[in-house]
Predict the structure of SIMPL domain-containing protein.
Amino acid sequence: MNTTTASIESFRNIIEVSGEGTVAAAPDRALITLGVVTEKANLSEAQTENAAAVSSILQSLYQLGIPKEKVQTVQYGIDIQYNYKDGVQTFRGYKVTHLLRVTADKIEQTGVIVDTAVRHGANTISGVQFTSAHPEAYYHQALTKAVHSSRQKAATLATAMGVALHPTPVRIQEVSHGVEPPPYQMATFAAAASTPIQPGELNISAAVKAYYSYS
């Protein structure tokens, strides 16, 4: 299956086909990006207020049982804000942004994590993404389906041509793979009594290009 291109060219009768495979999997991990955006005329005040809110969020998450290693800063930035009027730029203040990435290994906690963070100062939820903790096993299943798909296509072509297909491919090339999670995108977030979040399912796909000989 891993012969070189030169050896492929030594076969006069070659069918080149593609194969695709997709496996549906239930997500078992949530990646939640949330944080605090603070705007103030004074930079020191903006930083202090932002830091206090983030600290409150962190403590609330730890009290939920989220391990410290499952929470990390993914963005911290300070921007100068301006007003524009009649082509004139005037200083308005500073914007401090601190975003956290929370990894939840119990996806049923997702809504609770969002609500808890909002109650303790989070004013932006940039996204919730559901993934699999072990996508490799599902990908291997999808890859197997892709190979079977390529063989079925080659067999169909061989039948149409009236030739005998050799079932073992001369070569197989992995083309692409990936996980297509169902994203739950959110912008600036307002607190609610309860946030229902449905994880849906993952589509894990694989694709191959295969070369079969025939006689």
Summary: The chain has two domains: 5-27+134-190+200-213, 29-131. Residues 135-161 form the longest helix (27 residues).
